[in-house]
Write a structure and sequence with these properties.
about 230 residues; Rossmann fold; Arc Repressor Mutant, subunit A; five-stranded parallel beta sheet
Length: about 230
């Protein structure tokens, strides 16, 4: 999933981005509220980590912009301001969660999982398609009880597909959610990683789960509907 970190403390911003990247997220960073609003005006994210005390526009202004545009992206306030009135204001403006500095990165990761789980309509950390299971807490993937080792990017791609189970995703949509602004790879990156994922997820299994929809993109589902027509 793709995350925006808006935090004006550059060292903390960098550390958060490194931690989330190691967890398999695609991360973009900015350091003031105006830049955050600009990025959010043309890029879709699965979650936003938002500091309150930022230059040019504070976190409250950024959140007000998002909700005013009808954008329901989950927002986690990350701030040193722990006064009750600040928490109430943030939650009333539409924040999904609030974490006070200093914080545990394990807790930050858990809160991100909880927020995105709700936004995708999942009730727990286990995502399933047929006999394929992805545990977002343990970052473990199994099929028919056998563990499958994935790279961070393969895991992110699989999680995104399962969170949109049954929905055909275009290459552009996948690329926008799995890769950040710094990506400098080839134009066929989505096709390449889908190929990697198919070899590991479908392999010699009789039932194939990842399907190509010609002219549209890719979808994960329990059977190939086109084959039944």
């Amino acid at each position: 999933m793709r995350i925006l970190v808006a935090e004006d403390e550059r060292d903390l911003n960098r550390i958060i981005a490194q931690k989330l990247t190691s967890d398999g997220y695609s991360v973009d960073c900015c350091h003031d509220g105006e830049e955050a609003i600009n990025i959010l005006s043309y890029t879709d994210y699965d979650a936003v980590i938002l500091d309150i005390m930022m230059p040019k526009a504070d976190g409250f202004a950024v959140l007000s912009y998002l909700r005013g545009k009808g954008i329901r992206t989950p927002v986690l306030f990350l701030t040193a301001r722990d006064a009750i009135e600040d928490r109430v204001k943030g939650l009333d403006l539409g924040a999904n969660d609030y974490l006070v500095k200093p914080f545990s990165f394990d807790e930050l990761s858990a809160r991100l999982r909880a927020m995105t789980r709700v936004s995708f309509g999942n009730t727990n950390n286990l995502l399933k398609v047929a006999d394929l299971t992805l545990d977002t807490a343990a970052r473990k993937v199994t099929r028919a009880g056998r563990e499958i080792k994935l790279s961070a990017k393969e895991y992110a791609l699989l999680e995104y597909l399962i969170n949109n189970k049954g929905i055909v995703l275009s290459r552009e949509k996948i690329e926008n959610h799995i890769w950040n602004f710094d990506y400098e790879g080839g134009t066929n990156a989505v096709d390449v990683y889908i190929s990697y994922l198919r070899k590991k997820i479908d392999g010699d299994y009789k039932t194939k789960l990842i399907h190509t929809v010609r002219g549209s993109g890719y979808v994960i589902r329990e059977e190939d509907e086109d084959a039944n027509k």
